[in-house]
Each structure stands twice: as structure tokens, then as C-alpha cells.
Amino acid sequence: MINRDVKSLQRKPDVVDVVIVGMGASGGTAAKVLSEAGLTVVGLDRGPWLSPQTHFSGDELKFLNRDYLGPDPALNPRTVRHDLNSKAEITSFSPVPQLVGGGTVHWAGWVPRPMPSDFKQRSLHGDIEGASLVDWPITYDELEPYLSKIEWEFGCAGLARSNKFEPPRSREYPMPPLPPTAFAAKFYEGCERLGINAYPFPIALASTSYKGREPANHTGFWNQFGDPTLMRSTTLTSFIPDALSTGRFELRPDCYVREVTVGSEGRAKGVVYVDAEGNEFEQEAKAVVLCLGAIESARLMLMSKSRYFPEGLANSSGYLGKNATFHETMWTVGLFDKDLHDPLYGYSGHQMNGGSFEFYETDESRGHIGGSVIASCTVAQPINWLHPGRPMWGQAGKDADRDFYNHAMAVELILHDMPQETNQVDLDPEVTDGWGLPVARITHKPHENDIRLATWQTNKNMEILEAAGAYRVLPTHLEKSTGNSFHQHGTARMGDNWSTSVLNEWCQAHDVDNLFVMDGSFFPTSTGVNPTLTIMAQAWRASEYLANIYARGRAE
Amino acid sequence: MVCRAHWRVIQPRVAVDAPERLFFDEHQWQTIEDATARIIPTDHQPGAREAAVVRYIDRYLSGIEYIYAAADGSGFLELDGHPAQSWTRRVEALRCAYSEGVRDLDRLSNEIFDSPFTELDEAKQDAVLVTLSGAPKPEPLGPGRAESIGTILQSASDHRLTFFNLLALHTRQGFYGDPFYGGNRDRIGWEVIGFPGPTSLRDTNDCSFSLESTYVTGKAWEDLIPHLRESAPLSTN
Ligand SMILES: Cc1cc2nc3c(=O)[nH]c(=O)nc-3n(C[C@H](O)[C@H](O)[C@H](O)COP(=O)(O)OP(=O)(O)OC[C@H]3O[C@@H](n4cnc5c(N)ncnc54)[C@H](O)[C@@H]3O)c2cc1C
After folding, report:
1. With contact defined as beta carbons under 8 Å apart, do A199 and B234 qualify?
2. Is residue A555 part of a domain?
3. CA distances from A233 to A26, A49, A377 (A)
4. Which residue's CA is the nearest one to ligand 1's atom 32?
5. Is the sign of the CA dihedral A451, A454, A456, A458 positive or negative?
6. Could you give the CA distance from residue A537 to residue A411 in angstroms, rounded to a whole number?
7. pLDDT tens, B125-142?
8. Best interface-test mutation with B: which of A45, A54, A59, A341 has the largest number of B CBs within 10 A?
9. A76 in contact with B, Cβ within 8 Å
10. Quick check: helix, strand or coil at residue A428?
11. Which of A23, A317, A549, B103 has the most CB atoms less than 10 A away?
């Protein structure tokens, strides 16, 4: 048992088996698997350790407009440019909140599985000009048992056989779906008219009593809000408590890690962090696991320069930070005539519940390769309700809200974007954060295929809304990536080839055998589904390897 | 230093429905009140003026006391550490933007119509806002396919916005935000658009506010998903 009080007394806490940086989706998973396997683990997160019942509510100003869960745009800015020669501007790009539980605390919780094709994009499509397609070093079948594990351990609701395109699965869903919302029913209607297979999208929540959790939150304050109940599956309320109950895991919130230190022979020695009071500590460990999210993990590794790694930790390939993909979310909103349609209550439910894989696999007659999931989703709460091109003021603005707020819904696509070497995360040469450290600079320009896919699918989404009877449809197009999906991947690709990838198939750095990166950084290509189920499944798989094979091998 | 998880709940200077001005002077208050009333006008139903949007903005600008309500609506959180410093600077920047914004409104009003903003009629105030925004006054929505726009981030922070965009965003916030922050008086904003809304933040914290009755029940999944009709019957919801 590690004594929590010790840390405030010493600047060099006792060495542990593993230190994990970032306590979100992947970090929470790693903490559970590693501590349950018998290792001593310290978990660090730069954000606070909040309690659902004390801290969460349906307060739109607080959660959506005033970044209560962070990141504060003034303290943690990022910069973005669209090609390597432009100057980057300060913007909030992919502002995933920072707190214990990470992105799972306030996420929507869509957990569709990736498809077998996602793991072999290069074999399927060959070289696409301007893109750096590769196959994953693992297959769907290798990941499948872990997808099931996460669905069952974390909790997920779905309906077997409802998705015509369902990839093979070894277990059914642990819970049935909730009833559809009114807007989801409209989506089913539109899809049926067009012969599209819509089905209740799997979502990470308790739809029935499950592991001491109840389906207790029907406020509609869901996506981007913390859930005051235990209904939503979050690592804050599941895997992290599991890890704590082993007695081998210590969680330190409000600790900002700024460097991974490197010892003799170029192995990771530990991490340096600053606590809320501004005190600096070095936590040494036999292995270091990075779970900061794909932007921040790349940034931390790039900041961790040493004699062994002058270009950033584990970056002998020069590929660290490259091939970043961000899944722009493309919304098409449908407004329905209130005299002809019952209300859609586009702010009810759990962000979405009908989705489709109909257009997921490549059909070259569409003019692009790959495809994306689509789903019907809420337009959300009144201040920020989704209305692309909203009339900003005056009578037209008021009428738009009054006439359509209760009669609006969105169909969303998650852009399956192509990896490109020039789309990358590096350190901004000028802008620093509230701690004086260089911020992440994003360079991102959509690939031609991204634009074609987005346009084609947006047209299809307009047709669905029109088939459902929409009065007006409001499409969006891909000008530039804004990071609005909050999905981040690819900055430290897994691969078998040391000269073109950073990690091996166990998320272990090629250059540094005791360094693992388990967040979305490891994605070789982006997939067309929400990434977190895949991230957590692979984090589980890699943690098992770390605990059962790597750690044992080294101990013997 | 108190970490975010342990910020205390404090009672703010004035009660939710108190009329006091905390930041604006009288002229600023009136100017902003008039401007918000052009952003969300009063018609056969109330608008920004009736919803006390100006009071919402005034409280926001008054310091860092009204930044985050406690989850159960029992008071506001006492910020500390980095967030407190950052919000102090952010509010300072907003104050400057509003003080300058009021001066700009008057300057434009004087240039175009020879009177300060508050003395103009509504049509003239609109003309000033059109100049300030640099875009025509928005048109009513028609049927069909709208012109597509570039993707956006849904959660809108007001960090680094220009005055007109601040005014438009804060007017929405004061009209549709929880009444605990000083606007949306008597839940007027929610009533206008038919959002049922909770009676208090507490109802969203204990989840007694529920929209479950709006779900579509009583339909079998087979009714919604044609291919399930062909296979064996499954569950109902
Ligand atoms: C509003 C919203 C809705 C979403 N909905 C979905 C969805 O429906 N389905 C889906 O699959 N995905 C969704 N996502 C994305 C999902 O949240 C992420 O994919 C997921 O959380 C990524 O997991 P991670 O472990 O890589 O990082 P995170 O969960 O982001 O965790 C990273 C953690 O690292 C910490 N950290 C960062 N830097 C440091 C540092 N220097 N020192 C210490 N700690 C640090 C952060 O505070 C954070 O807690 C959503 C995201 C948002 C914001």
C-alpha cells in the first residue's frame, strides 16, 4: 500500500513499477489492468479529481461556454496552421477536457466497433497519392477479445444483429439499447425510405441495472456535461476505482508532467511533474506509460529531449508527431416544419441513438475510398444548439430559435481522414502555456479524399433528412480541420518497421523498451468510427503484455 | 491553494433576482440593454430586455464571483489558483471589450445619426449594428438546402472574440442560460422556444429533471429496422 501523505514530504517519491501519465480513457484502463496484475502503479493527471454528484449538473454556461472541465484557452492554448509554410494561429483545437477520467467524463459514449478493413487500409487500397496509408500491425481478430472485454467491463448498450454490417463478435452486448428518441425515430424513417440500414448505435452507458449502476440520467444534459449519476461509463467511476481498490495504485490529480527523464542506456527513468502548488517532483518507475491523448503525448515526448534523444524521446525515426488524424465531425442539420411534424426534442436522450454503417466500406463509384459511420444526434441545449449558419441576431435569429429549436435534429458523420506525413503535431516555436512550456502546434490540411468523402456523405445525409421530411437542411463542408470531433490519433504510429513508426504492436517504443504510449497516438490510420473503444481495447491488450510478458521477462 | 475539486461554495454579493448594477455605469447598462434588445428583440413574446440579459452580462463582468455555479445551485464556486488568475485576466479583457464597445456604438451612432445609441429608434440601432458587424442584417430562413458552411466547434468560448460577436453570444447566453446566472428571468428564454428546462440547477444535479417521457416507447425494434422483420423477432423496447 502506498501512503498518500508521503508525496507532499518528498520531492522524489519511492520508485514504483509503473508511472502512468494521463488518467483518461487509456490511462484509466492501464491503471486497472496493471494494478490488478500485481504491479505498483502511480497515476498522474494534470486535472482535478472530481466527484460526479458533487460537481456535475446540467449547467450549459459552465460546461460548454466557460470550460469548467478545461482546458482554459488562455492557460492551455494550441496553435494551428494549414501547411508547413504558414504561421500558426492560436486556437482551441480539439479541446478535450483535462481531469481524472479524461475524455470519458463528459463524452457522448458512442462505442461502435472498428471494421476488419480498418486494420488493412494499405493492402486494400495500395498507395494513395499524398497519403501515407499503412496496415496496422494487428488485425481485427487480435483486438476482438479486448473489444468485448471493454464492452462488458465498462458497460455498453446495443442490439445484436440490428447492424447488418456488424463485424464478427465473440459476445453479445451486455445491455439492451434505450428506447429511441423522437429525432432518432425520424432518422429511422428517413433511412427506411432510402433503404439504408439504421440501427441503435452502441453506447457506453447503463441502460439497465449494471454493476451497481442505474439508468438514472434522462436530463438530456449529456454530451459535454459531466454525469452526476453512474449511468455513463467513465473511467473516473469504474476502472480507476477498480485500480484504487487493489491497494497498489496511487492517484495524484493536479500534477502536470513536463518531461520524461532518460537514464543510462537511453531508457526511461521516470517523469518530472509540477503539482498544484508549483512544487516539482520526479517520480521514478521501471516503466513509463503515456496516456495524455495523441496531441499531448507527442508534445511531451518532443519536450523530453536528452543526449540520447535530441529530437525528442523515442524519435530516432523522425516520425514522432507525424501522420496526425483528427476525424472532423461533419454535421448536417434538418429543420422540420412545426405545423407538419411532432416535436423532435432534439435535446433529449443521450446525444444520439440511431446510426448506420451502410456507407462504411469502399465503393469506388462514389469517387473516394473509405467511408464513415453516420448517426442521428441531438442539436443540444439552447445556447449552443447546432445551427450551421445561424442567423446571429434580430427577428430572423429569434424566429429561427422559436420556430425550429423543438423541430431540429442532426445527422453526423465522423470523417475517416487519410494519414499524411505533413499533418503533424510539433512544438510551437513562440507560444507558451501558463507554465512557460511550448504549446502543441498542429499542422493540418485535409486530403483530397477527405474532401470528397465529406461532400459525398454530406449529400447523402441531406437526402436522409429530406426523406424524413425536413423543411430546410443545413450542411457543413470541410474547409479546414477544427478538431471538433475531439478525436486524436496517429502521432506515434505502431508498426513493424523501426524506421517509419514509433511504437510496436504492444504500444512499446521501438527506441525505449520501458516506454509505452497507449492513447490514440498509436493508430496507424484513423478508422471511420469513434476511437475510444479501440483505444481502450488496445490499452488493455498492451497493459496485459506489459504486466504479464514484459515485466516478468525483466524480473527474471 | 485550493484545488478545483475542493473549491468552496460561496454566496455572491447580490441575490439572483436583485436589480443592482455591479460593473456597468448607467449609460453602459442602457446601451448594452438596448443593443441586446436588438439581438433578441421583443415581439408578441418577450426578448432580451425582459429576460434581463444586461444583468447577466453585468454580473459576468463584475469579477470572478459569478463564473461557475455550484452543481446543486446552492451558490457559486470560489475559484483559486491558476484558474482564478486566468479568469481575472479574461474578465478584465471582456470589461475592456465592453467599455470600448459601448464607445464604438456611440461613435458610430453619432457619425451616422448624430445621436448616441440609446436615443436612436430601433431601425437606426439596427443600422448601427449592421455597420458594427460588417454584415447585412440576417434574413428569415426559407425552405430547401442552405448554403453549406465550414465546420465549427460546438462549444463556444468567448475568449478572443470581437465586440459584436461577444454581444451576440452573451445575449444568447443571458437569454437561454440557467436563470441562476442573472439572465433568462422567469425562464422567459426557454418558454419562447419551448425548451422545458429544469426548475433549478439542483434538478439537473439530482436528475429529477427528466425528458424520458419524450422517448418513443411502445414500438418494437422490428418496426424501425426493416431487416429485423425478416429474421426472428427480437426484443421490444
Ligand atoms: C465532448 C466529447 C465527446 C466525445 N464523445 C466521444 C464518443 O462518443 N465516442 C468516442 O469514442 N470518443 C468520444 N470522445 C473522444 C474521447 O473522449 C477520446 O477519444 C478519449 O478520451 C481519448 O482517450 P485518451 O486516453 O487518449 O485521452 P484522454 O481521455 O483525453 O485523457 C488524457 C488525460 O491526460 C491528462 N494530461 C494531458 N497532459 C498531461 C500532462 N502533461 N500531465 C499530466 N496529465 C496530462 C489530461 O488531463 C487527461 O485527463 C469525445 C470527446 C469529447 C470532448
Report:
1. no
2. no
3. 13, 16, 19
4. A292
5. negative
6. 27
7. 999 999 999 999 999 999
8. A59
9. no
10. strand
11. A23
How many structural domains comprise chain A?
A: 1
Cis peptide before A71 (omega within 30 of 0): yes
CB-CB neighbours of A321 under 10 Å = 29
Mutate to test the pocket of ligand 1, among A45, A488, A489, A517 (most ligand atoms within 8 A of CB): A45
CA B84/CA B80 separation, integer angstroms: 5
Instruction: Tell me whether residue A2 is in a domain.
Output: no
In a domain, A72, yes or no: yes
C-alpha closest to that of A495 among A200, A57, A50, A133: A133
Beta carbons of A518 and A552 less than 8 angstroms apart: no
Q: What is the pLDDT of residue B232?
A: 56
Q: Give per-residue burial for A95-129: e unless 16+ CB within 10 Å, then b.
A: bbbbbbbbbbbbbbbbbbbbbebbbbbbeebeebe
Nearest Cα residue to A348 out of A423, A407, A401: A407
Retrieve residue A425's grid coordinates: 503535431
φ/ψ of A538, rounded to 5, equals: -70, -35
Hey, where are the domains in chain B? 4-138+159-208
Minimum-distance CB partner of A347 among B129, B195, B226: B195
Chain B residue nearest residue A96, CA to CA: B155
Q: Which residues pair with A517 in a beta bridge?
A: A290
Residue A253's closest CA among A472, A67, A4, A437?
A4
Report how far residue B50's alpha carbon sits from residue B32's, in angstroms, rounded to the nearest whole number.
13
DSSP secondary structure string, B77-137? Answer: E---HHHHHHHHHHHHHHHHHHHHHHHHHHHHHHHHHSS-GGGS-HHHHHHHHHHHHTSPP
Instruction: Kindly report the pTM of this predicted structure.
Output: 0.96
* pLDDT, tens digit (0-9, with 9 covering 90-100), for A32-82: 999 999 999 999 999 999 999 999 999 999 999 999 997 888 899 999 999
Provide the grid cell at A286. Answer: 521501471
Where residue A61 sits, what CATH number does that domain have? 3.50.50.60
A365 within domain boundaries: yes
- Parallel, antiparallel or unpaired: strands A89-91 and A78-81: antiparallel
**Domain residues for A534?**
8-550
**How confident is the model at residue A555, as a pLDDT?**
53
For chain B, the 3-state helix, strand and coil shares in percent, each to the nearest 5, are 50, 5, 45
* pLDDT tens, position by position, B45-77: 999 999 999 999 999 999 999 999 999 999 999
Place of cell 440609446: B118
Q: What residues contact A298, with CB distance under 8 A and at least 6 apart?
A: A320, A321, A324, A425, A426, A440, A491, A492, A521
